[in-house]
Amino acid sequence: xxxxxxxxxxxxxxxxxxxxxxxxxxxxxxxxxxxxxxxxxxxxxxxxxxxxxxxxxxxxxxxxxxxxxxxxxxxxxxxxxxxxxxxxxxxxxxxxxxxxxxxxxxxxxxxxxxxxxxxxxxxxxxxxxxxxxxxxxxxxxxxxxxxxxxxxxxxxxxxxxxxxxxxxxxxxxxxxxxxxxxxxxxxxxxxxxxxxxxxxxxxxxxxxxxxxxxxxxxxxxxxxxxxxxxxxxxxxxxxxxxxxxxxxxxxxxxxxxxxxxxxxxxxxxxxxxxxxxxxxxxxxxxxxxxxxxxxxxxxxxxxxxxxxxxxxxxxxxxxxxxxxxxxxxxxxxxxxxxxxxxxxxxxxxxxxxxxxxxxxxxxxxxxxxxxxxxxxxxxxxx
Length: 382
Hints:
- This protein has 382 residues and is α/β, with parallel strands linked by helices.
- It has helices at 3-8, 52-77, 91-98, 114-119, 124-132, 141-144, 155-170, 188-199, 230-234, 246-261, 291-298, 302-312, 318-340, 360-374; strands at residues 106-108, 176-181, 204-210, 213-214, 217-218, 238-242, 267-272.
- The longest helix is centred in the N-terminal third of the chain and has 26 residues, at 52-77.
């Protein structure tokens, strides 16, 4: 009997009976859920010079990213987008790591890194074209050193590793970062990228956002040990950071990027966070996880955590929060208007550039599609 068939016979626990580990995971934390600053001898130096203005900037980044994300979810529900992958709850991991990057570093995202895209200066409305079906990615990757979204799970880690090997051969001192989720960590592509990056000492940071659910599969069905410990078997360091703590995410990513730039090879960062919403808008998380679990993580909300710290340290007043709320509303309006104004793509463009010199089969498919479009009474097609 194979391992797969044995596992398949094991009963699945219901959402309400999922067990938690007996001990809390060790992780780097600089801000508690209550907004208290925690000292850390190893990582404090990476945020020691952060100013109140920069702290407010991190808060602004997270608030506006969440507003954009919520607007996109609403647009999908209204039929304006075909699908949306929300980052709700993962803002600190993305903004913290995104703000640790230098302009000359290169990012390979999945399809949920809206906060990192924000940090790289990609216009939020450009992220929505693919989800509306009007393009295959609405930005030039080389303009912001931010690659197009990757839907194939885990493949971007190989792309990042190859790019980082090229960076090293060019003698540049920049770094590469690859984002992926806990579910993707089970893909062979990720293991292969770990092997190649370690052997070739590639300047790459693997940033795993462990939001604890690979669609409906909990992390406990992905691994027997904390994900960051997998790096040890490949010969490079791994660290687990509180992914709901923007300061810790910033500090740990800075450390990992500095290692890469200094020629010390790859690092695995596991940002221990939580997906508070659905995997995508086609998913219903109530089918596989308990409400109590989400409620427990809502108490660790990354935005509320930083707000508590800002208020306690007198780094922000009500005027700042009110102004940010107005900016948030304006962003929401801009996103709505931009999406609804996107022109429909040429339906026949999909047949272009499949072959450099054309192909009989493509010509046949184009003709069949044209006949199908012409079959509609209004001539507009499906």
